[in-house]
Write a structure and sequence with these properties.
The complex is a heterodimer of chains A (162) and B (140). Chain A has five helices and three strands, in the order αααβαββα. Chain A has 162 residues and is mostly helical. Chain A has two domains: 38 residues, no CATH class; 105 residues, no CATH class. In chain A, strand 2 and strand 3 form a beta hairpin. In chain B, helix 1 runs antiparallel to helix 3 and helix 3 runs antiparallel to helix 4. The radius of gyration of chain B is 23 Å and the shape is elongated. The chains are: A mainly alpha (162), B mainly alpha (140). Chains A and B meet through helix 1, helix 3, helix 4, strand 2 and strand 3 of A and helix 1, helix 3 and helix 4 of B.
């Protein structure tokens, strides 16, 4: 079983991707999609990616909702910064944030979340002392950003990936 | 081909609003490229188009084709997923390239690389340039 289906979740995801792309649910597309998905998952095995397991699907779902809300809110904030004339002195800058999480997939997810959110950008990660460099478009309080990243995202990602 | 005139009003209105909102956000992001000052500020602007901008356009597309073809059209979700996974990688590459250049030019506006850990004190202080290159060499 493990030999033929090394990554069951990925295989299902690839099959769903195939079905969505072809836009049909006929037996032919399902069979072809399954063959392709199983083949692709086995091909990935040769890359020996680090092992992980999605421990808490519900926590992942809650995190997705939080990220979605945050993306909508910061879209609005960044659009205001761009469109409206500056009412106060706005300052952008870098913040170095110490992390506790070491899980590679968790860090990758954090990087994608932070960069996908308008107004914040993941610039650099230093694996030696486990810190990341964050660039913030509208930087008011550095301490607050450290708190936001750690409480809002890192805690939940640790729950999911570690 | 589908005929847009066949779309009932209850679906046409939200489709048009979503399209306008999405296009407006993408335009705002492009304006940001003009208005914002430094490279690191400008790199924030296109994320408007790649997050909510594209989401609105894709929602409009899903609504439009689902109503016209009277079946659920969902393959736009793939565009959203692939967008979310790929754009941050591009932006991070650009930001890191800019940071690397600014550091090796000795620019004051970017923070220096983190100091080496006490456990490895063999890194010489030297000029910032040699420090940067050692750092990068270590990571490869």
């Amino acid at each position: 079983m493990r030999r033929w289906l090394p990554f069951p979740l990925l295989t299902v995801a690839l099959l769903v991707l195939w079905l969505l792309l072809t836009g049909s649910l006929t037996p032919g597309t399902i069979i072809l999609g399954s063959i392709l998905a199983i083949g692709a998952a086995r091909a990935l095995l040769t890359l020996t990616p680090p092992k992980t397991r999605l421990r808490r699907p519900r926590a992942a779902f809650r995190l997705a909702l939080v990220v979605l809300a945050e993306i909508v809110r910061s879209n609005w904030a960044v659009a205001r910064i761009i469109l409206l004339p500056a009412t106060r002195q706005r300052k952008s800058g870098f913040v170095r944030i110490p992390l506790d999480m070491r899980a590679p997939y968790g860090l990758a997810a954090l990087a994608c979340i932070i960069t996908a959110t308008p107004g914040t950008l993941w610039v650099e990660y230093d694996s030696a002392d486990n810190t990341m460099l964050l660039h913030v478009l509208d930087l008011i309080d550095e301490e607050e950003w450290v708190r936001i990243i750690k409480d809002r995202y890192e805690k939940r990602l640790v729950e999911i990936f570690e | 081909m589908t005929n847009a005139a066949d779309l009932p009003a209850w679906a046409a209105l939200p489709t048009a609003l979503l399209l306008l909102l999405g296009a407006g956000l993408a335009l705002t992001g492009s304006l940001g490229l003009l208005r914002l000052g430094s490279f690191y500020e400008r790199i924030h602007a296109p994320t408007l188009g790649t997050t909510m901008g594209i989401s609105c356009v894709l929602l409009a597309s899903m609504l439009f084709f689902s109503v016209l073809q009277t079946r659920l059209v969902l393959h736009e979700l793939l565009i959203a997923v692939l967008m979310v996974v790929t754009t941050p990688v591009t932006l991070m590459l650009l930001a890191r390239a800019a940071l690397y250049r600014d550091r090796s030019e000795g620019c004051d506006e970017v923070p220096p690389p983190p100091p080496p850990l006490p456990s490895s004190p063999d890194l010489p202080g030297g000029s910032p340039q040699t420090q940067v290159s050692t750092k990068v060499f270590e990571r490869t």
